[in-house]
Amino acid sequence: MDNKTLLIGIAVVAFVTALLRFLPFLIFRGKKQTPKIMLYLGKVLPFAIMGMLVVFCFKNVSLVQAPHGIPELIAAVVVVLLHLWKKNTLLSITVGTICYMVCVQYAFV
Amino acid sequence: MHGTLFLEKRMKKLLKTVFVRTLPVMAGYLALGIGFGILAKSNGIGVLAVAAMSLFIYAGSMQFVAVGLFAGGASVLTLALTTLMVNARHLFYGISMIEPYKDMGKIKPYLIYGLTDETYALVCTGDVPEGFDKRRYSFFVTLFNHFYWVTGSVLGALIGSFITFDTTGIDFAMTALFITVFVEQWKSTNNHAPALIGVLSSVVCLLVFGADSFLIPAMLCICVLLLTGKNRIESREGRVNG
After folding, report:
1. Closest by alpha carbon to B119, among A27, A33, A49, A19?
2. How many cross-chain Cβ pairs, A to B, lie less than 8 Å apart?
3. Predicted ipTM?
4. Chain-centre distance for alpha carbon B18
5. Cα(A96)–Cα(A74) distance, rounded to whole angstroms?
C-alpha cells in the first residue's frame, strides 16, 4: 500500500469519526437555550449508554463455546461486589482485571 | 509570588488527581495501543502512520478495523461507511454532553475531538473532584487519555515484538471501568429505567442482529424507548426526588 492511499484512508476515517463526535454540538450550536427534549436526553442517556457500553464489551463472548463466558462472569461479579463494598474505582478495576487475566491465562485455557 | 506558588500547587494537585482517575484508562490504552501498533506494523503500516492514526483518528476499535480495510485496499466509500457504522455511538456522547460542555470556551473543540468511550465514561458523570475547575479537569482527562493511546500505539509499532510478558486479558480494564461507572450511576438514582433500557435494548439487539451490527439498532431502540417513555420516566424522577 503506497503512502498516498494510506494518507487518504487515515484522513477519511479521522474525518468521519470527528464528524460523528461534533455533529450534535454543531446542530445545537448558537441556540441559547438547548431544546427541552435534548436536556431530557442529556439527563437520561448517560445511564442508558453505560449499560450499552457494558454489553458492547461482552459482545464477542460465546455462551455456547467453552469457556461459556465464565471468566467474564467471574471478573464482572468481582468488580461489582468489590465496588459496592469498597467504593474504590481503581481497586475494583485492578482486582477485576487481574482476576480476568488469571482466568483466561491459567484457569480456562 | 505567593499567588503563583499557590496556583502551582493547585495545578500539581489537579494533575495528580487526573492521573489517578485516568490510571485504569492508562492500563487499557497502553495495552490495546500496543496491540494496535503490533497489528498495524505487521500489516505494513509504518511507525509514523501508526502515530498519525492514533493522534488523528483516535478511536480504538475503528483503528483495528481500519488496518484490515487499508490492507485489503478498501475504497474511500467503504472506509467512510464502515466508520459511520462502527463509530455511530459517538453521536450519543455528543447529545448527552451538549449541556455539560456548554461553557468550555476555547478548549471545547478539543474536548469534543477527544470524546472516546473511556473519556466519556470519566466525564459524563459530571463528577469533578471538589475544588477543581471543570474546564481544566475535563481538558486534562481528555489530554492524558489521548497521550496514553498514542504512546501505546507507537510503543507497539516500535518494540511490540520484544514484549514477552503475556498481556492477554488486560483489556478487561476497559470493561471494568464501564462496570464501575455503571454501578456508580445505578446507586446515584432510584430511577433505574434508563439504565435498564440501555442494557435490555443492547442485549436484545445483540441477540437479534449479532455482534457486528447490533449497536445502531440498539441506539435506535434506546432513543425510541427513552422518548416514548419520557412522561413515565420523568414522573418517576419527580416522585423520587419529591
Report:
1. A49
2. 251
3. 0.90
4. 15
5. 9
Domain span at residue A65 reads 34-107
- List per-residue pLDDT tens for chain B, 242 residues long: 566 777 788 889 999 999 999 998 998 899 889 889 988 988 889 999 999 999 999 998 899 889 988 988 889 999 998 898 889 889 989 999 998 898 899 999 999 999 999 999 999 877 788 888 899 999 999 999 999 999 999 999 998 778 777 778 888 888 998 899 899 899 989 999 999 999 999 999 999 999 888 888 999 999 999 999 999 888 876 554 43
The label of the residue with cell 488523528 reads B56
Mutate to test the interface with A, among B45, B177, B188, B192 (most CBs of A within 10 A): B177
Instruction: Assess whether A39 and A23 both reside in one domain.
Output: no
Cβ(B28)–Cβ(B170) below 8 Å = yes
Please tell me whether residues A75 and A64 are part of one structural domain: yes
Contact B88 A20 (CB under 8 A): yes
Whether residues A12 and A25 fall in one domain: yes
SS3 call for B190: coil
Residue A39 and residue A78 in one domain: yes
For chain B, the structural domain boundaries read 2-171, 189-242
**Per the structure, how many domains does chain A have?**
2
Give chain A positions within 8 Å (CB) of B184.
Answer: 83
Q: Which residue type does A9 have?
A: G
Contact map slice: A 41-100 vs B, CB within 8 A: 41-42, 44-60, 71-72, 75-76, 79-80, 83-84, 89-90, 92-94, 96-97, 100
- Do both A45 and A21 map to the same domain? no
Name every chain A residue with its beta carbon within 8 A of the beta carbon of B219.
Answer: 52
CA angle B57, A61, B59 (to 5 degrees): 5
